[in-house]
Write a structure and sequence with these properties.
Helix content: 55-70%
InterPro entries: AhpD-like (IPR029032), AhpD_core (IPR004675), CMD-like (IPR003779)
Organism: Blastopirellula marina DSM 3645
Domain Carboxymuconolactone decarboxylase-like: 12-94
Number of helices: 9
Distance between the termini: 24 Å
GO molecular function, one term: peroxiredoxin activity
Protein name: Alkylhydroperoxidase AhpD core
Number of domains: 1
Structural class: mainly alpha
CATH topology: AhpD-like
Shape: globular
Length: 152
């Protein structure tokens, strides 16, 4: 499958703003690994090969064990995630799949027990942003950078 067009080159301004959001999020208190796990899970839901490759590579570079990367799609059954990671992954799924899932008060209360209000906004921003990236990469067949990932 070949890329349909280079959206970043054709219209760089919107992506400059998305990159500014990413830069902000890197300074948040959420932590790099948590954000990458969330981005990986959202990208799995959205079927984005480019982002799956990128975020699994970033997790490996961060020293995450292979089983935590491999099992993120089945996080509910895997014992290797903290309560904080579990509720972040549940929130990511609910926010990504709004038509299929209700963002319930119960889920919000669980989230609020693990994250402060600023972190909740930052986490939701990270989820919205990776969804935006996925919604460009998938329809335009963004090619995963396999060579870069294999040398990591």
């Amino acid at each position: 499958m070949s890329e349909r067009l280079d959206y970043f080159a054709l219209s760089p301004e919107p992506f400059r703003h998305l990159m500014a959001i990413e830069k902000y999020l890197h300074k948040s208190t959420l932590g790099h690994v948590l954000m990458e796990l969330v981005k990986l899970r959202v990208s799995q839901i959205n079927g984005c090969a480019y982002c799956l490759n990128m975020h699994s590579t970033l997790l490996r570079k961060a020293g995450e064990p292979a089983h935590r990367i491999d099992l993120v799609a089945a996080w509910r059954e895997a014992p290797c995630y903290s309560d904080r990671e579990r509720v972040a992954l549940a929130w990511a799924e609910a926010v990504t799949l709004l038509p299929q899932h209700q963002v319930t008060d119960e889920l919000y209360d669980e989230l609020a027990a693990q994250f402060d209000e600023t972190e909740i906004v930052d986490l939701t921003t990270a989820i919205a942003t990776i969804n935006a990236w996925n919604r460009f990469a998938v329809p335009f067949n963004k090619t995963p950078e396999i060579e870069a990932a294999m040398s990591a």
